[in-house]
Amino acid sequence: MKQLFRILIYVFCLSLLVGGIVYVHIHVSVLWRDAELRLVQLLDVPAQTSHTTALKKRFDLASAEMDTIYAAIPTRDELVAVVAAISAEAIRSGISAQVPIVQTAKIPEEGTAPTRFEDVRIQIVASGQPAALALFLHRVEHLLYILHLASWKIDTMQKSSVTPFTSEVLSGEQVAPPLSTSLEASISLIIQNKPLTP
Q1: DSSP designation for 111
Q2: Rounded Cα–Cα distance for residues 77 and 118 (Å)
Q3: Residue 163: φ, ψ to 5°
Q4: What are the tens digits of pLDDT across the range 38-97?
Q5: Three-state DSSP class for 88?
Q6: For residue range 121-180, what is the model confidence (pLDDT) as tens digits?
């Protein structure tokens, strides 16, 4: 019986030793795998750094482009400057122009969230030489704002000349009355609402 008891103790100790060896082996394997992954990550640091640097450059370029875009989108308060720029282009083109209508969307009702951007319609009425009117349209379309020439119409009509009845006979060479050219244009302009302050 003593021998059986000793054998059981040896078997028990041996199984504990084998179990401990298996446990240590599994634990060491996990630690080696973790060490290998960390080594791969350490070896990959220069590639990650260059990738991070490239992403930062792309982000900086995108931020600069967004700043340029936001600079080209006036606020509701800056609509007066847009109309002044249109008037300046009319003077520069040598025509007479007026902006009788600047129509914005309705201001959102209380309780509704305002949108970030809004569409504004600007109506232009002008008169001048046909080439000068076309040049004016080209210049307005290329202002430093995000706008679209929605519609335009140029009408050319001869001014009627009323001559009093006389007994003189007109010569064969008659001078044509001068031309009167008018322009009606509609511009769609994007404006940004001022961001809400927290």
Answers
A1: T
A2: 13
A3: -110, 135
A4: 888 777 778 788 888 889 999 999 999 888 888 888 888 888 899 999 999 999 999 999
A5: helix
A6: 999 999 988 889 999 999 998 888 888 888 888 888 765 555 554 444 455 555 554 567
Helix (H/G/I), strand (E/B), else coil: 190? strand
Domain ranges of the chain: 2-71, 76-161+178-192
Helix (H) / strand (E) element for 159: namely: none
Rg (alpha carbons) of the chain, rounded to whole number: 41
Residue 40 identity? V
Both tokens of 58, joined, read 């792309």
pLDDT of 185 strictly over 60: yes
Structure tokens at 141: 């379309």
Helix (H, G, I), strand (E, B) or coil at 127: strand
d(CA 136, CA 90): 6
- Tell me the residue length of the chain: 198
Closest C-alpha to 191, from 121, 90, 87: 121
DSSP state of 142: T
The pLDDT value recorded for residue 178 is 54
Architecture of the domain delimited by 76-161+178-192: 2-Layer Sandwich (3.30)
